[in-house]
């Protein structure tokens, strides 16, 4: 999925995983997330879960009024001025008294841009307005009554007042558009002059008609602007700055579950967010928490833990090779002299497999589970780890890990086109392992039984190492890639109850939004 404003994080686990056929009461075939007290605890804590029949959005994207700054920056004003330079109105024809007057294509020869404002109008629209500013139009006129009179026409407009209301419309489940609801233009004063002079009635009619002609052009430009804004919104939805890749053909459901909502703090776009059609029966939707005070950035993306849990559902029974940080790579040796290694804990390994390296695989017996809290994210997952040496199974362990993400950050090189997917971003997180609960162990060699019996204590005493291994393997669970389409340079992320929030700004000097903007 293109999941712009979403993404990520997580874990994996490590250490010696073995299990003995002997002296253990747990049957690995009965390994079940639903029966484990840690999972029951998470389920009980979800006090504000929603009736599954209600269509509660899994993702809400908020575009704050700062997005309007893209159109209001000094560079944007300069771009609009250049676009308007030398533009002409349609030829104006009218009859004053008995004279037929034609003013040929009045040309904009001078412009002082007005002040432009964007303001949301609840519930589904926003208003573009302008004030101040000046404009001068110059053209040739011809007056015909018995004789022909030719000359120049001038129109000086002061106080360019445009008021246009645009409405957000959901066209279907997959797209929205911005439509012009109303558009009016007026001036504080319009002074016209014909050289040579005609008569006051001609001046008055020309004054009224040139204002009407300008209104038609500007409102046509507003209609074009509405299309640009609509496309910008859809691009924001379909081209988030960071994308979370799927391991199968499933994808996130980006259908709109309600009409776009304009509030005082910004435009809210509510998406379904569910990943995959087949979900665990006990997976419930949770509300995202949106604060009106979220205004420091242009775009906020609120993602419920339901969305991530639906994404994590694809990991059931999935197996991956565990990557070991370089500083711990020697641990996988079967033979070692000074430092600790596999051979230290399993003395039979140097005899049977001298000078070899072990390989660890991780299988997710059940989908991992997350719960977002105000100060981080609770994560619980059940794993089955297997240790191989020379492709032969040495042993395995099934266990639960109760962990916690305290903070994370994404630093992405959005302009990089040369780097591979895995090289143009850096995902970092601080993870704390709270508890490790070994369910069952298995050993192929009876000489490993003593080690298996002490494995839970060994893992508990080496939580820091396990935490580092989890952090090192984040990209395996949440494979991210950056998307340079929106040219976002940095992303801020933080947690709220049941909500992961991403916030970012669009480039302030971006010309893309104004590239197809036409007023005349």
Structure characterization notes:
The protein contains eleven helices and 21 strands. With 520 residues, it is an alpha+beta fold. It folds into two domains: 303 residues, Bactericidal permeability-increasing protein, domain 2, CATH 3.15.20; 149 residues, Bactericidal permeability-increasing protein, domain 1, CATH 3.15.10.10. Strands 2, 3, 4, 5, 6, 7 and 8 form a seven-stranded antiparallel sheet that branches. The longest helix is centred in the middle third of the chain and has 39 residues.
Keywords summarizing the entry:
520 residues; alpha+beta; Bactericidal permeability-increasing protein, domain 2; Bactericidal permeability-increasing protein, domain 1; 7-stranded antiparallel β-sheet
Brief write-up:
It is built from 11 helices and 21 strands.
How many strands, which pairing sense, and closed or not: the largest β-sheet? 7 strands, antiparallel
Total of domains: 2
The CATH architecture assignment of the largest domain turns out to be Super Roll
How much of the sequence lies in strands comes to 35-45%
Radius of gyration: 33 Å
Percent range of helical residues: 10-25%
Quick check: average pLDDT?
Answer: 79
CATH C-level name of the largest domain: Alpha Beta
State the total count of DSSP E strands.
21
Q: Which descriptor suits the 3D outline? A: rod-shaped
* N→C terminal distance: 39 Å
Low-confidence segments: 1-54, 413-424, 510-520
Topology:
Elements: H1 37-45, E1 59-63, H2 69-72, H3 74-84, E2 92-96, E3 99-112, E4 115-121, E5 125-131, E6 134-145, E7 147-172, E8 175-195, H4 200-238, E9 242-244, E10 261-263, E11 266-271, E12 299-304, H5 305-312, E13 319-321, H6 342-345, H7 348-352, E14 358-364, E15 369-373, E16 376-389, E17 392-412, E18 425-443, H8 449-453, H9 455-460, H10 463-472, H11 474-477, E19 480-482, E20 492-496, E21 499-504
